[in-house]
Amino acid sequence: MSTTRDDAIAALRDWSRPGRRADLVAAAWQAGETNVSALAEAARITRPTVYADLRSRGIDPDHRPKGNSVITNLSPLDIEGFTGVADRLDAELDAALRRWAASHPDVDPRGPEGKAEGLRLVGLMDTTFRYADVRDLLAHEQVARAERDRLLHQVELRWEALSTAAAWLAAHHAYTVAVDEARIAIDMWRERAEAALNRPFFCMSDREEAAYRQIQEAGHPALEQALADLDRTPAQTAEQLRANLDQAHERRQQLAAETARHAQPASQ
To answer: What are the tens digits of pLDDT across the range 142-153?
Structure first.
């Protein structure tokens, strides 16, 4: 009969089994936790170890497995002449109305059919404009998020490089610069995330739904998953990332100062 002690020892042995931690890290990633700092904290390991564990399980840490949420298609919009550019809206609507009138010479533009087409074109114009605005904000957030994570990883790489650096002062300077760049990247991501979060995309009528389908049929990505993937508390996340970075940096500076103090006599 199994006892509590036996269960505890079995769990400990299971954790200690080679590869078990990497399995758990990969499982958390695939379950949707793609914040490397959060994974490192939960597993009580460093960020580079998280990256190594993920890659050992065939996972590319630069790819976030959250559905089809990457806004990769930033090609210019041209949906029946509508580009989504704010200062072209009126001209594009007038041009679309003229094209329709020219292709329907026997239809009164002021009659029911003409009015219905006018409303359709207005809906297409508005939906294309709002789509372009939200799509661009989401793309900027995703680029900033990737750069934030890349530079946070770069901090860890620069710190690890100090252990074997021949030119220690130069390597330490590179580490210090990496920390500064990571701080800037966190702030830039927060700004982009907040801007994207403040621009919801929705369709309120059948005309807008039809326009949105038309945009996607033209080869432009859907926005729902990318919007769902947005961090709902970017200010809090940025604050936590900065706090983690600064705490680690403060400790590392103490260690670096100790190293420099011992190395100084040898250089004199």
So the answer is: 889 989 988 988
Measured between alpha carbons, how far is 87 from 128 in angstroms, rounded to an integer? 13
d(CA 52, CA 59): 10
Distance CA 14, CA 20 (A): 7
Q: What are the angstrom distances between the C-alpha of 265 and each of 54, 110, 165, 260, 261?
A: 42, 91, 18, 9, 8
Inter-CA distances, 251 with 154, 158, 189, 246, 254, Å:
17, 15, 25, 9, 5
- What's the rounded Cα separation, in Å, for the pair 182 and 131? 31
d(CA 171, CA 63) in angstroms, rounded, equals 29
Reply yes or no on whether the pLDDT at 79 is more than 60: yes
pLDDT at 15: 59
DSSP character for 62? T
* Range with the largest mean pLDDT of 4-13, 31-40, 237-246: 237-246
Burial 83-107 (b: 16+ CB within 10 A, else e): bbeeeebeebbeebbeebeeeeeee
